[in-house]
Specification:
Helix content: 40-55%
Number of strands: 3
Strand order of the largest sheet: 1-2-3
CATH class: Alpha Beta
Radius of gyration: 15 Å
Shape: elongated
Strand content: 15-25%
CATH superfamily: Fe-S cluster assembly (FSCA)
Largest sheet: 3 strands, mixed
Number of helices: 3
Oligomer: single chain
Length: 111
């Protein structure tokens, strides 16, 4: 039987919520620069589970899974000690051509 997470008090919940929001606002501009967005879809503050979704041009991006795992997950786990798991998804509801028109959709080195 899985172990239940320890419940946190309202003060700790508010602290975690503020820290997560601050970190998300730090990460979002990089994703938005490529015509996408990064949003939190669900959070279990007691268990430390954060669910995020890449939207916009990220739906057709070849490196979206790397962005989620290597970027978003790594930053959340490194900077928020209470995060135990990051679940990511990509919003693929946007048309491929509309998505491509929003931005590069991938890493392009700057000269």
């Amino acid at each position: 039987m899985p172990e239940l997470p320890e419940l946190i008090d309202e003060e700790e919940r508010a602290r975690r919520e503020a820290a997560l929001e601050e970190l998300m606002e730090l990460m979002r501009p990089a994703v938005q620069e490529d015509g996408g967005d990064l949003v939190v879809t669900a959070v279990d503050y007691d268990a430390g589970i954060v669910e995020v979704q890449l939207q916009g041009a990220c739906g057709s991006c070849a490196i979206s899974s790397m962005t989620l795992q290597g970027g978003v997950e790594r930053l959340l786990r490194d900077r928020l000690s209470w995060v135990t798991e990051v679940r990511g998804a990509v919003d693929e509801s946007m048309d491929l051509f509309e998505s491509a028109s929003l931005g590069r959709g991938g890493y392009v080195p700057r000269a």
